[in-house]
Amino acid sequence: MVGAGLSGLVCARELKRQGLTVRLLEARDRWGGRMHGHTSASGLRLDLGGQWVGASHHRLIELLAEFGLRRYPTYYDGQGIFHWRGLTHRAGVEHDFRSSLLFFKPQELDLPAAAVAETLALQLRFAQLVEQVPPQAPWNASNASELDRLSIAAWLQGQGAGELARYSLAWLGRLGGSGGFEPHESSILHLAWTQAVAPQQETPEAWLVEGGVAQLAAQLAGELAEVIQLQAPVAAIEQEGDGGLRLSYGCGEQLQAAAAVVAIPPPLRLGIRFSPALPPDWTALLQRSPMGSMVKMLAIYWEPFWRRQGLNGLGIGNLPTLELCVDSSPPGGPGVLAGFIAGERAWRWQRLGAAERRQAVLNDLVSWWGPEAAEPQELVLHNWNEESWTTGAFTSFLAPGTWTSYGRVWQQAHGRVVWAGTEAASRWPGYFEGAIEAGLAAADQVRQLLGGR
């Protein structure tokens, strides 16, 4: 096993339960991958990576229940704020995403009626496009080749979309669970596929976990402690003539195995030397699957003061740095706002000095929630782009033309090398649910390769 993120941990646990001998090699000095916990100065447990549990994340819910980890609902009572062109607009949350304007009740937003109507009409056309994309084979969608070569930006231009309508789809690419990419960086087919396999309509941010979801990785790693080796990056996987494998890792160490599961983000797979080499389609696919750009923010306050104003902490809009803010306060605890800097905003933010970075985030928090937001008890900024064994989050995305040219190999094994990680899932990729699905699917593939042993 290569990679001790959630997918690798789940796969290793399943194979071990089947009586197979397992070794789990992890390049980092920690397990968990993008399921990464942090303890604040005040002792509060936070999630630096993913943190939400979706309404239809059934495998994740089952795993949390197994370990006795309790969920609580994300706070959506009251009104959120949509920030648009320098002005704030208060509105309630529309739980039917298809009828919303980026989660808000459109009739409550004090925006030009024509712009709102155009945005809702465009969202409907996009939703109809999503329905045409087969989740497990997007290359079979109607007009797939044309849609895959058309960037999101070009499709929006062809629709004659105005500024607000364009923003709603651009936001989905940057922050809708898709992977931190801009409209010119991926195809409209890929964006439609992300909503076909991980629909916002199914409320993927329904719950949070008391003490943080990263506890789950800790529990799994505890079960597998004797088989996990940290600081052991894999440099080569060689398939030998007798049907076995040899993995080279760490400082010249080697390991013999009957099969290997590679559960790391697609771009990192290019750092492994495979023998025989990956087929041309696989190499081309990985070269065209960059990680999205993402920075996570957690602002801790003495209390969720925004609730006193009838606000629920949900903020979305075209601010200079933050584009999404969500109330992540634990029950009876301090106030916590989680936020994200995505896409080109993340790259611009990274060029600033430390003090300027902090101030840019505080400025946007004040734009949403007023002067009280300027003085958090603690401000945590975690730049996933700087993590060398992730290089971004939540997931990777595909460049225009990639699905229809090379996508068919997406889940295919390379001899006795099987793929896992959330990107290998055909349901909820980019989420922990997808990581679990991919880990269990990889375990099934390994059993088949080994003749059902």
List strands and helices in order, with pairings:
Elements: H1 6-17, E1 24-25, E2 37-39, E3 45-47, H2 58-66, E4 71-73, E5 79-84, E6 87-92, H3 113-131, H4 144-148, H5 152-158, H6 163-175, H7 188-197, E7 207-209, H8 215-223, E8 228-229, E9 234-239, E10 245-249, E11 253-257, E12 260-262, H9 266-269, E13 273-275, H10 280-287, E14 294-301, E15 311-317, E16 324-327, E17 335-342, H11 344-350, H12 354-369, E18 378-383, H13 402-406, E19 417-419, H14 432-449
Parallel strand pairs: 1-8, 5-15, 9-13, 12-19
Antiparallel strand pairs: 2-3, 4-7, 5-6, 9-10, 10-11, 14-17, 14-18, 15-16, 16-17
CATH superfamily of the largest domain: FAD/NAD(P)-binding domain
Strand arrangement within the widest β-sheet reads 6-5-15-16-17-14-18
Mean pLDDT: 96
Provide the domain count: 3
Q: How many beta-strand runs?
A: 19
How many H/I helical runs? 14
Main features:
453 residues, alpha+beta, FAD/NAD(P)-binding domain, Polyamine Oxidase, Chain A, domain 2, Guanine Nucleotide Dissociation Inhibitor, domain 1, seven-stranded mixed beta sheet, four-stranded mixed beta sheet, 14 helices, 19 strands, globular
Detailed description of the structure:
The protein is of the alpha+beta class and 453 residues long. The chain has 3 domains: 6-35 and 214-278 and 414-449, 3-Layer(bba) Sandwich (FAD/NAD(P)-binding domain); 37-56 and 69-75 and 205-212 and 292-386, Polyamine Oxidase, Chain A, domain 2 (Alpha-Beta Complex), CATH 3.90.660.10; 98-200, Guanine Nucleotide Dissociation Inhibitor, domain 1 (Orthogonal Bundle). It contains 14 helices and 19 strands. It has helices at residues 6-17, 58-66, 113-131, 144-148, 152-158, 163-175, 188-197, 215-223, 266-269, 280-287, 344-350, 354-369, 402-406, 432-449, and strands at residues 24-25, 37-39, 45-47, 71-73, 79-84, 87-92, 207-209, 228-229, 234-239, 245-249, 253-257, 260-262, 273-275, 294-301, 311-317, 324-327, 335-342, 378-383, 417-419. The strands form 6 sheets. It has a 7-stranded mixed sheet. The protein has a 4-stranded mixed sheet with strand order 11-10-9-13, with no helix packed on it. It has a two-stranded parallel ribbon with strand order 1-8. The longest helix is centred in the N-terminal third of the chain and has 19 residues, at 113-131. It is globular and about 70 Å long.
